[in-house]
Amino acid sequence: MDRRNMDVDRRGRRLMDGNRGYGPVVYWMSRDQRIDDNWALLWAQQEAIIREKSLLVVFCLIPDYPGANLRHYHFMLQGLAELPDRLAWLDIGFTLLEGSPEDVLPGYLQRCDAHLLVSDFDPLRIKRQWQEQLKATVSVPFFEVDSHNIIPAWITSAKKEYGAYTIRPKIKRILELYLTDIPALQRHPVPFGRDNARLEISRLTDMVADNKPGAVDWLQSGQTAASRAMHDFIEHRLITYSSLRNNPCRQGQSGLSPYLHFGQLAPQRLAWQVSQSGLPHEILDDFLEELIVRRELADNYCLYEPAYDQFAGFPDWAQNTLHAHRSDQRDALYSLAALEAAETNELLWNACQRDLVTRGKLHGYLRMYWAKKILEWTREPEEALEYAIILNDRYSLDGRDPNGYTGIAWSIGGVHDRAWRERPVFGKIRYMNEAGCRRKFDVEAYIRSIPSA
User: Fold this and answer.
1) Would the pLDDT of 1 be above 50?
2) DSSP for 235-271?
3) Contact 89, 267 (CB under 8 A)
4) How far apart are CA 163 and CA 166, in angstroms?
5) What average pLDDT does range 138-157 have in this prediction?
6) What share of the chain in percent tops pLDDT 90?
7) Residue ranges of E strands in 71-230
């Protein structure tokens, strides 16, 4: 077996056995919405070539995905619109099914007499529920491939990790085996035999249940734009990432999180290009720590903690300290509506919220401060967690994501953190406030940069 086949094979696992049909190998695309650098699609093509079958990519469009709205659907559909023509050139089919996977996919697989089904790995509850429902209703062999993590999440660890310090050595021990260049998809030797229909974006966005907030216009979607943005970051800003990343007034971060969230950019491709950039390790280490260790730690948390978006998912010490401070006096209390409208007594927080609402993105350092203030301004930690998730999912392009749920759980519930000096409301949860932000960057300059409501 050649190296390419070994790289593909070790990234997937069988979910269930079944009877192989005479039709195409079907790749159900969900989390990783790209053609290039997609291990699941490579895995499906390898199987199709071995079995001399055609290859078909299927995407299921759900008009009311929890927490998503027109902003997210528009960005996603603009990216998906690149795929049909490119797949057709590769002699690979593409079909968009309208409806939830458990409703529309079983019948479609039966109609096309699918040979087998390949899916993306995703640790989130709704995606795992879809998998379980499909396992009960489809009859073909069913596999999943992790194209989102550099090391498949189930290989990195078989349990919930306490923090970066426990998962980091597990990743570093085998990272060299997985952090490789990624082979190109081949032109498929068995053509699908039917034209790929282009996406009718205006009709599909009309189906979206929640049409507010609207689409963003400052960021172009799709894997072509994602690749261009990646190279721009590596060539112009990677060298200053460590020194500027915590300053929202400087363009120090990569700005790639929307592309990573929608799977338009492969984390492995980004990590590989960064590692091959020729810059010294002391410059690269901070970025690769965030991209690999912290991001894959978030997937680990959501995979092995069923209550990843609930108070019960917090570590025991954090639950205990938050319980002990439930009755503490709050300086201010705000409703979800007031927070959403950026109507608090703190100008910096209001600017953060307006930034999130208007741009669909909030600087990583500010997102921690933003979430911790919600804990300070709500009646109980459960309410703080609920409000932060609602607002992040609704407005952030990269919401509804393991990074978002884990980051909020870190901010409010001490997940992957340690106990700090005890104080009112927060207990031993790490504290952040505007004064700390002022030590990091020019707060007034940031506030001025955000348009007023």
Assistant:
1) no
2) HHTGGGHHHHTT-TTS--S---HHHHHTTSS-HHHHH
3) no
4) 6
5) 97
6) 93
7) 93-98, 116-120, 142-145
CA-closest candidate to residue 372, choices 315, 402, 417 = 417
Residue 132 and residue 254 in one domain: no
Helix (H) or strand (E) holding 301: helix 295-304
Residue 203 has pLDDT above 70, yes or no: yes
Full strand arrangement of the beta sheet holding 142-145: 12-16, 142-145, 116-120, 25-29, 55-61, 93-98
Angle 58-291-117 from CA coordinates, rounded to 5°: 20
Residue 190 forms part of a structural domain: no
Q: Report the half-sphere exposure of 98 (CA within 13 A, side-chain side).
A: 10
* Domain-located, residue 394: yes
Residue 452 CB: number of other CB atoms within 10 A? Answer: 9
Collapsing DSSP to helix, strand or coil, 384 comes out as helix
Given a contact cutoff of 8 angstroms between Cβ atoms, the answer to whether 403 and 291 are in contact is no
Residues 289 and 162 occupy one common structural domain: yes
Number of C-beta neighbours around residue 139 at 10 A: 16
Cα separation of 357 and 335, whole Å?
A: 17
Q: Rounded to an integer, what distance in angstroms lies between the CA atom of residue 59 and that of residue 64?
A: 15
Mean pLDDT of the residues in the chain:
95
Residues 287 and 340 in one domain: no
405 with 293, same domain?
no
A 10 A CB-CB count for 171 gives 21
Place of tokens 């039917």: 194
The first and second tokens of residue 379, run together, are 């009646």
Same domain, yes or no: 244 and 283: yes
- Structural contact between residues 190 and 54, judged by C-beta atoms closer than 8 angstroms: yes
The three-state secondary structure class of 172 is helix
What is the reported pLDDT for 3?
Answer: 42
- State which of 304, 331, 355 marks the end of a domain: 304
Question: Can you tell me the distance from the alpha carbon of 224 to that of 163, in angstroms, rounded to the nearest whole number?
Answer: 34
282, pLDDT greater than 90 = no
What is the C-alpha R_g of the chain?
Answer: 22
Asked whether 33 and 79 are in contact (CB, 8 A), the reply is yes
The verdict on whether omega for the bond into residue 280 sits within 30 degrees of 0, i.e. cis, is no
Quote the tokens at residue 155: 């290989």
pTM: 0.96
Domain contains 453: no
Tokens representing residue 194 in the block: 């039917």
Residue type (1 letter), 392? N
Banded pLDDT at 409 (limits 50, 70, 90): very high
Q: How confident is the model at residue 5 (pLDDT cuts 50, 70, 90)?
A: low
Domain with 330 in it: 311-448
